[in-house]
Design brief:
With 591 residues, this protein is mostly beta strands. Helix content is 10%, strand content 44%. It has 6 helices and 26 strands. The strands form 4 sheets. A 16-stranded antiparallel beta sheet has the order 8-9-10-11-12-13-14-15-16-20-21-22-23-24-25-26, with no helix packed on it. Strands 4-5-3-7-6 form a 5-stranded mixed beta sheet, with helices on one face. It has a 3-stranded antiparallel beta sheet with strand order 17-18-19, with no helix packed on it. It is globular and about 95 Å long.
Length: 591
């Protein structure tokens, strides 16, 4: 019988070894392993319950035995023969509420595409389907096909059904018809989000975000997402700058094409796990800060993102353009820029053109493992290609199209380790390190590319963008409310113990440490330069939190107090200021 031969071929992978003790769970594991192996070889109807182990102890006197494996009696003949796929039928516009199936079909790449009207072009859908006529049944290919089709973003349900063709079955080979039913999502959708935000120096206010989605736009799985956001913030407290307000408007258009738009054809086997998606982004933002300035920015990106496997994903943007225009400044803010050349230079970098790359390893998807890791690395390089075409201006800086462009290299890493103790308890830790180096045409990093520290996703005992750089104290410099505190070096470490309280509600105890610095000394920001003494310049805080977790939608409340404030005079930095805690409200876990 051919099934015995196929079982024997993979005995090298057996979990049973000579001189092992008799162990029933191990025998069960071996049956499951054999079943998985046979399924990959086409044994569609096989079941691990068809196998039986027999132990013969009559041959030995010292508690040893011989172990035999065989099929049980009366196993159905169709269970011990491999099956081959004869036909692949695809239904790109299947309605689960209707029993009728389209009779019209188009033949493409040896598959039948059934659709009365063209809903999804077969040439764009076919690369996502790994099942081919003539292949033996393979459940892994079925799972991968289902996952790939679901990743397109146009379908709500993906169902693969195999029908046996009994009339054509032989004694040694069975035949299957593969039917792939694809139920689409609604073509158009609108989502609205009402937000409440708190920022540095007690800025707080409401926000509204609207997103319009149009799926399968050109009948190739393309998705267009248009997002508009509005935010209003007012400084409810903060000394002599109370009453300052800001209005932010934004519009972003994302066109996602579920295939690789690239001038050179790349071997499909290179992207076996998933097909890269092409993403084109166009957007604009407008920020108006009363009594200070207005800032307009335009963004354009062209790039790709894909999953290399279950854990690893990549995103690369070979074209990343950003234009920033600082306009309508008040005399008060002009004086701030005049007194602070460092800040003025960061705003003068009007044009940014470069390449960005992101690598993510996400082991957190393994929900049952006690030790899991997450790693994210980002790289951002700008201005190198423009330097070949730029011309020097009267200021000595190079310009292109009359705009001074930025040159810098920026890299950061985000490493996380979670230890799951069981019973919903987790110890979560995080380490972040990043640096940006300006060069060539830039003396400082552009303002939009600098780091900040403090806030609900950072050091929670300090308000957003209010920590650092270094030991700088904004209150002593009388700059409160004018600009966010930023730097081109950032270090942070976090630890959090999470535990369940009752249904949907979890508690947390946490500690955070971090700060930002500059690699070049800015005379207007005393103590901002990074040095070997950085450990003593960390902002440190601790606190407690409540998380409302409903099916992975998390609303988070954290209350944190500073323990070590680097802005205070040396010797007085360990202040344990529990009387003035900082309240943080956020969506999602911080790390």
């Amino acid at each position: 019988m051919i099934v015995y031969k196929d079982i024997q071929e993979n005995f090298g992978q057996s979990v049973i070894e000579g001189d092992m003790r008799f162990d029933l769970p191990t025998l069960k594991v071996e049956r499951e392993r054999i079943d998985v192996d046979l399924k990959k070889k086409g044994y569609y109807n096989f079941n691990p319950g068809f196998l039986i182990f027999e132990a013969d102890t009559n041959q030995y006197n010292n508690k040893r035995f011989d172990l035999f494996l065989r099929l049980k009696k009366d196993v159905p003949p169709k269970s011990v023969i491999p099956y081959q796929i004869t036909t692949v039928n695809v239904y790109p516009n299947y309605n689960v509420d209707e029993d009728s199936i389209n009779a019209n079909y188009e033949r493409y790449e040896d598959k039948n595409y059934f659709q009365d009207e063209l809903f999804f072009k077969p040439k764009y859908l076919d690369p996502y389907i790994l099942l081919e006529a003539g292949d033996y049944y393979d459940p892994e290919k079925s799972r991968n096909t289902s996952r790939r089709l679901a990743s397109i973003g146009s379908y709500k349900f993906v169902n693969i059904r195999y029908d046996e063709i009994d009339t054509l079955a032989t004694d040694s080979l069975g035949l299957l018809e593969a039917n792939i039913f694809l139920s689409p999502l609604k073509k158009r959708a609108i989502r609205a989000e009402l937000q409440a935000v708190t920022k540095s120096n007690n800025f707080a206010g409401p926000g509204l975000a609207l997103t319009f989605s149009n799926r399968n736009l050109f009948k190739g799985g393309e998705s267009l997402h248009i997002s508009a956001n509005f935010g209003y913030e007012v400084q409810v407290a903060g000394g002599n700058q109370s009453g300052l307000n800001s209005i932010q408007l934004g519009l972003t258009n994302d066109l996602i094409i579920p295939r690789l738009l690239f001038p050179i054809k790349i071997d499909d086997d290179f992207f076996e796990y998933s097909i890269p998606k092409t993403k084109i982004t166009l957007g604009g933002d407008y920020l108006l800060r009363s009594q200070l300035y207005s800032l307009a920015s335009l963004t354009a990106k062209f790039g790709y993102y894909w999953n290399a496997n279950r854990y690893v994903s990549h995103e690369i943007n070979p074209i990343s353009l950003n234009y920033v225009d600082l306009a309508k400044t008040t005399p008060e803010f002009d004086q701030i820029l005049l007194d602070n050349p460092f800040l003025r230079n960061s705003f003068e970098q009007q044009f940014i053109a470069g390449l960005t790359y992101s690598f993510i390893y996400n082991g957190l998807v393994d929900a049952n493992k006690p030790h899991v890791f997450f790693f994210n690395s980002n790289w951002d390089i700008a201005g190198n290609s423009l330097s070949l075409f730029g011309k020097k201006s009267a200021t000595g800086k190079k310009e292109i199209f009359g705009l001074e462009y930025a040159q810098y290299a920026k890299a950061d890493i985000d490493f996380r380790y979670h230890y799951r103790l069981g019973g919903g308890q987790t110890i979560a830790t995080r380490l972040f390190a990043g640096i940006g180096i300006p060069f060539g045409n830039s003396d400082v990093m552009p303002f939009s590319k600098q780091y900040f520290s403090g806030g609900p996703y950072s050091v929670r005992a300090f308000r957003t963008r209010s920590l650092g750089p270094g030991t700088f104290d904004r209150n002593s410099n009388n700059t409160e409310g004018f600009f966010d505190q930023t730097g081109n070096v950032r270090l942070e470490a976090n630890a959090e113990y999470r535990f369940p309280l009752f249904q949907y509600v979890n508690g947390a105890v946490f500690a955070d440490a971090g700060n930002i610095w500059n690699t070049k000394d800015n005379k207007e920001l005393e103590g901002d330069k990074f040095s070997s003494n950085f450990i003593n310049e960390l902002g440190i805080g601790a606190g407690v939190g409540i998380r409302i977790d409903i099916q992975n939608f998390v609303i988070r409340f954290d209350l944190a107090a500073p323990l070590h404030d680097p802005a205070l005079p040396q010797g007085n930095r360990w202040n344990f200021d529990f009387a003035n805690p900082i309240f943080n409200f956020a969506i999602g876990y911080p790390f």
